[in-house]
Amino acid sequence: MLLSIRDLKVDFNVDGQVVRVLHGIDLDIEKGETLGLVGESGCGKSVTCMAAMRLLGERAKITGRVNFNGCNILKLSDRKMENIRGKDLAMIFQDPVVSLNPVMKIGTQINEVLKLHGNYTKEESKKIAVSLLKKVGIASAECRLNDYPHQLSGGLCQRVMIAMALAGKPKILIADEPTTALDVTVQAQILELLRELNNDLDMATILVTHDLGVIAENVSRVMVMYAGVVVEEASVEDLFSNPSHPYTVGLLESLPDMENEGKDLIPIEGVVPAPDKRPSGCCFQPRCKRRTDECIKAQPGLKVVGNKHRVACFNPVGSIDQGGGNGRK
Amino acid sequence: MEENNMENTVVSVRKLVKYFPVKAEKLFGSRKTLKAVDNISFDIYRGEIVGIVGESGCGKSTTAKLVLNMIPPTAGSVLFNNKDITKLNPSKWRAMRLNMQMIFQDPLGALDPYVSIGKQIQEPLDIHNIGNLKERKNKVLNALDAVSMQKHMYDRYPHEISGGQRQRAVLARALIVEPELLVCDEPISALDVSIQAQVVNLFKRIQKELGITFMFISHDLRIVKHLCNRVVVMYLGKIVEEADSAELYSNTLHPYTKALISSIPLPKPVREKERIILEGDPPSPVDLPSGCRFSSRCPDAMERCFNEEPELIETGDNHRVACFLVNKGNHENAL
Amino acid sequence: MHYRYFLMKILRAVITMLLVVTFVFIVLRVTGDPAQAILSEDATEEEYQHFRKEWGLDKPLHEQYFAYLINMAKGDFGKSFRDNRDVRIIIAERLPKTIVLMSSALLFSLCIGIPLGIYSALHRNSIGDRLSMGLSVFGFSIPNFFLGILLILIFSLWLKIMPSAGSDSWLHIIMPMVTIGLGKMGSYARFTRSAVLSVLNKAYIRTAVAKGASRMRVIYRHAMPNAAIPIITIVGTSIGHIVVGGVVIENVFAWPGVGRLLVSSVATRDLALVQGVVIIVSISMVIANLLVDVMYGIVDPRIRISKKED
Questions:
Q1: What is the pTM of this model?
Q2: CA distance to partner chain A, nearest, from residue C219 (Å)
Q3: Which of chain C's residues have a Cβ under 8 Å away from the Cβ of B26?
Q4: Could you tell me if C139 and C183 are in contact, meaning their C-beta atoms sit under 8 angstroms apart?
């Protein structure tokens, strides 16, 4: 296992009040695998990634284990963590235009990674930077090195961010909503690029998004998150053909179907609870159509319902039709 | 809707142009213009939801502002109920603009943080002096009900309610003056998926129950297909294709529309059709490519496309398209 | 495209100078008869006419204006009405003292204020942060003439360790420098603190951390250059305050600079000298602002280079 997260909990200190936003996340990713984290805003998908990279700053208290290459990186010294960030674990973000330093040339920003994690001469760095820009599909890469971020479009900025992430030859690339701020035709380009890179390079990818459509074609395994917990985990085929958690089903039903017309959308009523106003029992229970008394009393744990398919629900969809019980064997 | 029935047309946009001046690049260089909207014509019929789609910079938001007469056009006209609103005098326009309401992407920015939701929904009635105080309050409660908000929301403040509720409140405020036309600029883009579905269903219900006409601006083709009766596709200030929703998605003619539809990420692990991936970004509306504006990114571009600009022509079934692949002949059959 | 920004700024500075010179002309010549102001009330009509002729005041206004403009372009400010010495020479005697005082006050406020602000931002809510922000509030809330008098009372009259007036040794400069600089130091410190804090919250800082940059590197390589942009703006606008404050403080400490010259020449109604001082001071402020603009362009590529259209 390349990265294995166990019982990850994150507490934020907001004005002296401690608010828990992650409630014990387990996550595994193997070499070269593509994993999708999906959920609505506030579900904790970004926080999970930021916690694994230790990017949350001093206001966050992180507990649990994040094992990378067999060592718990939460316990590493700051200096050792700096060696892992950008080299083994690289990350790209939602808004590429503001994620690049506005007063630094593109080339300098890429070279910084090479300088931090490698030992190259100036000429070598420049060559590598040009080849990286070419790899992410930027034409006339040599000229672009001298450009500033404000001279580039959003799509180009995201390509530069990806080039920068690739510069350290990472084992895992974490892409946090990489296409949310981009136009749909540009989104298609960037997703295509990420797919290609994952195939070409020996690199695992964690793709964080709120868009089930983006997840469907770009990852092999999916974890659905809700209010700081993982509610369902399955292979991408299983998740879409056989969704088990009522929340996953609800998310799919609230998307317009491109094939069947006139079908009404079935929204999930209510809203995601605020981290400091969580309901008792299952966190989805107030919005759930399959709620029973049991759901109000206790939080269900993840249970296996199929091949590598786990769901945290007392009454998963599909189980009632097959004779009830707490999940299939 | 074959013949443009005057009775049925709420908005009629004719040869509408909006250019913005841009700062000159060189010290004494010539002034450039940003062609945000460049000679577009379309109609909005009573009771329908028209979707305007396109990527950033295509001019869809500018079109919305022009239709609402929030900015003056460089040329062309906007007829609302057969009156050119761009040429009305201020007092006549004031009487008329109640019939056109708008909602925008960011509901929090559209609400005053220090005024309760009920008071804000009531404000248009106060401004235009409609009804007495009791009638106004009743209307507000009805409006809250119409957007599926509970009565106790009346006394809440914007920061106390969720994003979806805020957008409902903005919608209630727009509906309270009983407008004929509601222009919505990306009204659900900032909302979560599950909340989007709630608001989309609400739009559908309001269209059915109140017979309000919608102009719905969005970049999300999934939602547009689901919600709109008719769709106008824009690219760099021009209409490239226009058709009834079902027709547009089943019989797509323009290569840009094809690429847009193909780019939609579907919630299905296996894709049946090969995805069309366009190269590069849309060009700047300041330096437009010669010929067809889409020629620089078009996978099917021919020599002609780089020299001539195709006109929007009717191909039948209320379907209009601006592309030489479809319009092979000369310009005689142009609209 | 780089030079376009700088060229525009220089052009604007030249136009500003022309406006300043014109404004001074209008204020000093048109709002009253200089001859009447300068001559004592019992001067005869003959003396009066002679004075007007000698200084060219009898010519039509536009001729006076063009002659004046030409003289200004030549750098000729005329002769002092009082002792007939060349205004240029009188100002040139005083100017170095003022420049020394102003620039040391500016340097003092920058060299203490900015590091203090950076420290406070990086140790937010620590005791050090609270102390330095307290000092800053004290610095910019106390009126500087009052501070000057206070310093004289404490260090010159009571402790007797500082000279209270003059400019004979380097010791003399300390009290006026602190008096002028302390307020600016306070506002620079507070402003730097908030600029650094807001930059540290930006997405590109997170990117830099995610790249594996150390905390030091993130602060000095990524945060500082971006925080410098608003700081330069605020420093630029405060140069004027320093100059204005300086005029008062030069008088408090009997510092023989241009500020004292201005006050004394107003008192003796020496029109040519007042005009010369005002123009010199204004032009140095225009130049200081031009330098700030140039620095601004150097630091921020978004100002220097416009977006590519391709």
A1: 0.85
A2: 12
A3: 4
A4: yes
pLDDT digits (tens, 9 = 90+) for C165-203: 777 778 888 888 988 899 899 999 999 999 999 999 999
Is A250 in contact with A316 (CB distance < 8 Å)? no
Count of CB atoms situated within 10 Å of the CB of A322? 9
Say if the Cβ atoms of C8 and B27 lie within 8 Å.
yes
- How far C7 CA sits from the closest chain A CA (Å)? 21
> Which value, in Å, is the radius of gyration of the alpha carbons in chain B?
21
Number of helices and strands (H, E) in chain B? 10, 12
Q: Which of B162, B194, B265 sits opposite A214 (nearest CB)?
A: B265
CA nearest neighbour of C292 among C13, C1, C2, C11: C13
Q: How many CB pairs under 8 A join A and C?
A: 82
Give the span between the Cα atoms of C102 and B134, in whole angstroms: 68
Q: What confidence tens digit (pLDDT) does each residue in A268-298 have?
A: 888 888 888 889 999 999 999 899 999 999 9
pLDDT of residue C213 exceeding 70, the answer is yes
Distance from CA of C190 to the nearest CA of A (A): 22
Q: Are B217 and B35 in contact (CB under 8 A)?
A: no
**Selected residue of B22, B26, B27, B287 to mutate for chain C interface (largest C Cβ count, 10 A):** B27
Model confidence at A96: pLDDT above 80: yes
Complete edge-to-edge strand list for the sheet that includes strand B313-316: B100-103, B181-185, B213-218, B49-53, B230-235, B238-244, B319-321, B313-316
CA atoms within 13 A on the CB side of A142: 2
**How far is A246 from B169, CA to CA, in rounded Å?**
28
Residues ≥6 apart with Cβ < 8 Å to A67: A1, A3, A4, A5, A6, A73
Q: Per the structure block, which two tokens stand in for B181?
A: 């036309």
Please determine, for residue C30, whether its predicted confidence score (pLDDT) is greater than 80: no
Tens digits of per-residue pLDDT, C253-274? 888 888 888 888 888 777 788 8
Give me the residues paired with residue B320 across strands. Answer: B242, B314
Q: Across the interface, which of C7, C309, C310 has its CB nearest the CB of B27?
A: C7
pLDDT of res. B28? 54
